Every structure is written in structure tokens, then in C-alpha cells.
Amino acid sequence: MAAVVDLSQIVKAYDVRGVVPDQWDEPLAELFGAAFVTVTEASAIVIGYDMRPSSPGLSGAFARGAAAQGADVTLIGLCSTDQLYFASGQLDMPGAMFTASHNPAQYNGIKMCRAGAAPVGQDTGLAEIRTLAENWSATGAPTPSATTGTITHRETLTDYAAHLLSLVDLSGLRPLKVVVDAGNGMGGHTVPTVFADLPVTLVPMYFELDGTFPNHEANPLDPANIVDLQARVLAEGADLGLAFDGDADRCFVVDERGRGVSPSAITALVAARELAKHPGGTVIHNLITSWSVPEVVREHGGIPVRTRVGHSFIKQEMATTGAIFGGEHSAHYYFRDFWNADTGMLAALHVLAALGGQEGTLSALVSSYDRYAGSGEINSTVDDQTARTSAVREAYGSLDGITTDDLDGLTVTAQDWWFNLRPSNTEPLLRLNVEARDEATMAKVRDEVLTMVRATS
Q: Considering only CA atoms, which of 96, 97, 122 is closest in space to residue 36?
């Protein structure tokens, strides 16, 4: 009997992700498909994939493994991650999306969900899926079901677009010029269909589907990756710019001046609009988002709820509280009307509706939602995450007027500023976010904390 393979390097907290074929390949994808059906006890599943060269082969192998265990498989082909969530919700089937989001071309992965787009993470089935795949990699594939499932193809892009458009009132939209940078990712597949009938002059950038990312990394949160978009917005005299990540589940916004709009400001704007539809609703925000988010939620009659960073925590809290909307500093936006799943496209449509429903500029529109000075997320490589965090806690914890909490890393709050310092789960990094009532205070606190974090031992 072969030794059991250790898949701990590719089975992460929320998904499967690794280098192909070095860390995983089609035979292993087939075992993941069989394990997914076994753990979810699904009689039918839906599968989609992104534009990476390895995605068709991996997803096909996963489908064969699932069908061998008796599940009927619906293949929806090329899609964004939120299009897969739509299919899982609309068809009421567990789903698997083959993507590594913004990771380099040699990576691929699987984002899995139960019927209705409910997340599959370490505590909700992913650990069991890993164990089965590890065991079968040593002993051979599991015994096939007495009845092999069918594998059929289905087109969902049109229905996906129609569903999103039904959730936002765009009837009062004035003509807008919009530059969209798809980063050679799945936004190039979804945007033309979603925007087709809107009074929008679309200026496309890097819409060619190419999983080798020839123009720039498909991660719009890195400022280096939106430079082209910023320049094009100014050159075109556009009303705004939108940048999607590789699997197009995140959307980053640039205003008419070519300046990035904080995802916290977008969270606050969309929260206000969702509260107009659902008065008194609950809105989830992670603890890295700006003070402005809970303030705006309260001002519009809603109930803000603070949670840890990470989509599984957000989705769990949304399900528990019945929240109408949730937002993260990383430009993930979650909607109750979209099975509590994240969709950057729906957030983008809200921004278009808000901007196009009045005559002002985007920078003027978001100014009321962008109230404080923020550092953005700053990563520091450290030798001992715990020791560095303890040193920072010691320095601030005894000061008057300071509160600390440990919901996710260390959060330190004063009257005029706050910061959060949290460890990466996968790298020897500490991530720092600072916010203050003015730029000078933010810079002072940021530099003080970074000096402690980066002190040589």
C-alpha cells in the first residue's frame, strides 16, 4: 500500500489551492470530486472554471470523480466565481469553482459550496474532503456507485446577468462612461453581458481571457495593478473605473480623478442603498473596515455587526443574523439577495446606480462615506508573530483611554485612532491596518507600531 499523501499544503482554510502539476493534478482532482460528493451526500452538483490553462482538465477530472460516485453533474464552463455561486443558488446544488483567484498562472484551486452557495471550509466539510482524498491517494479510487451520474452542459451567463440586474434599480441611470480592467480574468467574460443593455459607454481593458496574466497580476488591491486603469480613466475622461480580480468576485473602484475609492466607502455606500430596500436591516463588516461603515449603517437605521476577517466568518454571521449585506476591506461584498454569497459585480451595479441616479461626480458622492485617514494593509515579515504582537500589546495596553480586543489578532482603540495587528495564517507575516481622524495622527501611530513590529531582536 502506498503512503498516505499529505495535502495540508494545498487544502487551505476555505479552499484548495496549489501549483499544478507539482502539488496537485487531474488524478487528484478526480479524488476531490469523489470526496466532495461523499461528504455533501449530493445527488447532483454544478461545476465551473476560470481561464487558467489547467482549469478545463482539472474540472473535467473532478466531474468524472463526482459522477463515478453517482452524482449528476452540470457543467457551466467558463464563469466567474459569483456566477458559480448563482448557479449553486438557482439550481439548489452544491458547487465547485476551479480558480486560484489572483495567484500566478501556475496555480489553480477549488472553491466549494453546498446547495444555495453555503460555504465549505475546514469546519464545514473541507477537512473531511481532504482526509478522504489523502486516503484514496494511497489506496486507490473509491468503489464506483452502482449507477454512474450523468454529465451535462448548461449556459448560465444570461440568467446570472438577469438576476443581478433584477436586484438593482437602474431605470434612472444617466449615460456614463466606464473603464473596466478585467486583468485578463473572468470579468472579460461577464461584464459585456451584464452591461449590454445599460446606458453605459464601456471602455474595456484586458478583456482577453488569458490565465498567464500577460498585462498585470489580477489583484486590484495592489496599487501597482490599477495604474493602467487610473491612467485610462483620466485619458478617456471617464466617470469611473472598475477593476476585477482573476475570478471576478472582487471589484475595486476608481473615481473620475483616477483615485482609488476605499472598499470601506463602497461598503458604506452599498449598505445605505440596501437599507433603503430593507429598513432596519443588519449589516456585517469585518474589523478592518473603516469607522465610517458602522456610522453610516446606524445613520440609515441599520444594525452594524463586527466580525473577523474572512468570507466564512462573514457568511456564517450573515446566516445567523439574517443580515442584508456584508462588506470587507478586501473588496468582497456579500448580499442576502445573492444567497449570502459575495459578488463584486452586484456591488459595481450599485455604484453605477448611485452615481448615475444623480448629476455629481463619484468623488463627491463617496466623500460622505470616506471620513477618516487609513493606512491600508501593511505587511511585515517577522521571526515571531506572537512575540511581536505581545510587545505591541504591552506598549499600548496600559495607556489611559485605550481599549484592546482579540476578536481577530490585536485591535487597539483610542478616541482618535485605532489599529489592528493580525498574523497571516500561511506566511510569517503580521498585517497592520491603522485609521485615525486625520492623516498626521494616522501616520504617527502607523510608524510607531511598525517600528515595534520590525525591531531587530
A: 96
Q: Are residues 25 and 111 in the same domain?
A: yes
| 3 state SS of 457 | coil
Q: Which of 155, 181, 215 is the last residue of a domain?
A: 155
Q: What is the 3-state secondary structure (H, E, C) of 92-155?
A: CCCEEEECCCCCCCCEEEEEEEEHHHEECCHHHCHHHHHHHHHHHHHHCCCCCCCCCCCEEECC
Q: Are 21 and 12 in contact (CB under 8 A)?
A: no
Which of 367, 386, 411 is the last residue before a domain boundary? 367
347-to-56, 135, 344 alpha-carbon distances in Å: 29, 41, 5
pLDDT digits (tens, 9 = 90+) for 301-315: 999 999 999 887 898
pTM metric for this prediction: 0.95
Q: What is the CATH number of the domain that holds 31?
A: 3.40.120.10
Which residue range is the domain that position 205 belongs to?
159-258
| Judgement on whether residues 95 and 207 belong to the same structural domain of the protein | no
Q: Please tell me which residue in 101, 137, 262, 292 is annotated as part of the active site.
A: 101
- Statement to judge: residues 172 and 302 lie in one domain: no
Characterize 331-344 residue by residue with b for buried, 16 or more Cβ atoms within 10 angstroms of its Cβ, and e for exposed: bbbbbbbbbbbbbb
pLDDT in tens, 170-215: 999 999 999 999 999 999 999 999 999 999 999 999 999 999 999 9
Q: Is residue 211 located within the same domain as residue 171?
A: yes
Residues 106, 179, 88, 151, CA torsion sign = negative
Q: How many domains does the chain have?
A: 4
The beta strand positions in 150-212, using DSSP E, are 151-153, 176-181, 200-205
Annotated active-site residue 101? The verdict is yes
Question: What digits encode the pLDDT tens for the residues 115-132?
Answer: 999 999 999 999 999 999
